[in-house]
Design brief:
This protein has 413 residues and is α/β, with parallel strands linked by helices. It is built from 13 helices and 19 strands. The strands form 5 sheets. The protein has an 8-stranded mixed sheet with strand order 12-11-8-13-16-17-18-19, with helices on both faces. Strands 2-1-3-4-5 form a 5-stranded parallel sheet, with helices on both faces. Strands 6-7 form a two-stranded antiparallel ribbon. Helix 1 links the parallel strand 1 (17-22) and strand 2. Helix 1 (28-40) crosses helix 8 (177-187) and helix 4 crosses helix 7. It is elongated and about 75 Å long. The chain starts with 16 loop residues before the first strand and ends in an 8-residue tail after the last helix. The structure holds cytidine-5'-triphosphate. Cytidine-5'-triphosphate (CTP) binds next to helix 11 and strand 16.
Length: 413
């Protein structure tokens, strides 16, 4: 059986209301399977078919399989505002398949049909499952629209590679129903950071030499932002102390800083009431001992820039920590990854360190992907293979939750 998923049940969807939106693509037939599995798992399912979806699948099928009436238009029910009603009652909305047009409309906030209007009237999690030809999938407009949606917290289930309509082979096949259902189950899962305060730092600090020049590093801040999006998605109150100007994930409180000293102040202030602090920022280790008031002129000759140590924020957090606060550091290494990371863990008196080899391809600075090894204070080591920074963020918080659930044992001296 394809993907070996025929017998899997999805109890996590039980009792939840899911809006299953189907747009017009060949893969629309797979939405029938998604609908059936959701209903089998005990979910209430309201199907939406866009106008062009009718070219690919029949309304009768969804009327027969779904638990709730089929919705096809803003004007075909007694409810004068079906989109806001659906947006409010849904525990989750899944768009499968999502065509390039639907993705573009959603990214632009266009609400000219029942699907567009429902998507922008909901606060429920939204799962978008694109399906299209490889050329369309790779087009910058589609990728940029998807990046916009991701930044807003929309969950994208990437298409599979394989045989496409017309016989071409490439990326663009709708993800297997099992993958779509697993994502839905995960999103409906426990809100395990609920009511916890999480402070996250992101980006490289800038240490000024003069009004126009600074010392910095290659950190893009993307991993920190992914951590913030993940934590807020799991119910945390999130403060993001950042040096970069990326779009702030929905629901996150941001504090913008530049220097290590500004970051130190902002992090220490927020950390005073935090349950979890994650230092994903690349804080400068050194800074100019003094900053010139005016731009240093070339005519004055090659300047001698004297450096001094910058504050080590994580070490300071480690010295101030309370027993029930969880401190997480990152270690960007180019050699002796595990030894260097483990020694930072004990030297800075923290609970967990996320080590990445920034010299490996696709890992760390500037990339959208990362591969890490998570080491906890108790010696638990977990590897996360090359994946998106959001997936790495998920793995980090999975470990944090596990770590916080371990009862504190007697202290070994
Ligand atoms: N860190 C910090 N303040 C600093 C330097 C680092 O808070 N001045 C934090 C980073 O945010 C990261 C962890 O400490 O979470 C480890 O940072 P890293 O630069 O890898 O380690 P360093 O202690 O600076 O050691 P080295 O640069 O020699 O590897």
């Amino acid at each position: 059986m394809a993907h070996g998923d025929a017998q899997i049940d999805y109890p996590g969807v039980s009792g939840r209301h899911i809006v299953l939106a189907v747009s017009g693509g060949i893969a629309a037939y797979k939405a029938i399977e998604v609908c059936r599995r959701l209903v089998d798992g005990g979910a209430s399912v309201t199907p939406i078919l866009t106008e062009s979806a009718h070219q690919f699948v029949g309304p009768t099928t969804f009327k027969a399989l779904a638990t709730e009436p089929l919705v096809t238009s803003l004007f075909d029910s007694d409810d004068p505002i079906p989109h806001t009603t659906l947006g409010q009652i849904a525990d989750l909305i899944v768009v499968a398949p999502a065509t390039a047009r639907v993705i573009g409309s959603y990214a632009a906030g266009i609400s000219d049909d029942i699907l567009g209007a429902t998507l922008i009237s909901t606060k429920a999690p939204v799962v978008v499952c694109p399906a299209m030809h490889t050329e369309m999938w790779e087009h910058p407009s589609v990728q940029e629209n998807l990046a916009t949606l991701r930044r807003r917290g929309v969950h994208i289930v990437e298409p599979d590679e394989g045989r496409l309509a017309g016989g071409d082979i490439g990326k663009g096949r709708l993800a297997a129903p099992a993958r779509i259902l697993a994502e839905i189950e995960r999103l409906l899962g426990p809100n395990d950071l609920d009511a916890l305060t999480v402070v996250i730092s992101a980006g490289g600090t800038r240490e000024p030499i003069d009004p126009v020049r600074f010392i910095s590093n290659r950190s893009s801040g993307k991993q920190g932002y992914a951590l913030a999006a993940e934590a807020v998605g799991r119910g945390a109150n999130v403060v993001l102390v950042t040096t970069v100007d990326l779009p702030i994930p929905h629901g996150v409180a941001a504090v913008h800083v530049e220097t290590s000293e500004q970051m130190r102040k902002a992090v220490l202030e927020s950390a005073a009431n935090a349950d979890i602090v994650v230092m994903a920022a690349a804080v400068s280790d050194f800074r100019p001992a003094s900053t010139a008031d005016q731009k240093i002129k070339k005519s004055a000759g090659v300047p001698e820039i004297v450096l001094e140590p910058a504050p080590d924020i994580l070490a300071e957090l480690g010295s101030l920590r309370t027993a029930d606060q969880t401190l997480v550091g990152f270690a960007a290494e180019t050699e002796n990854l595990l030894d260097n990371a483990a020694s930072k863990l004990s030297r800075k008196n923290i609970d967990m360190i996320v080590a990445n080899d920034v010299s490996a391809s696709g890992v760390g600075f500037g990339h959208d992907t990362n591969a890490v090894t998570i080491i906890t204070e108790g010696g638990l080591v977990t590897g996360v293979a090359l994946s998106s920074k959001r997936e790495v963020a998920r793995a980090v918080f999975d470990q944090v939750i596990r770590y916080r659930e371990i009862p504190a044992g007697p202290t070994l001296v």
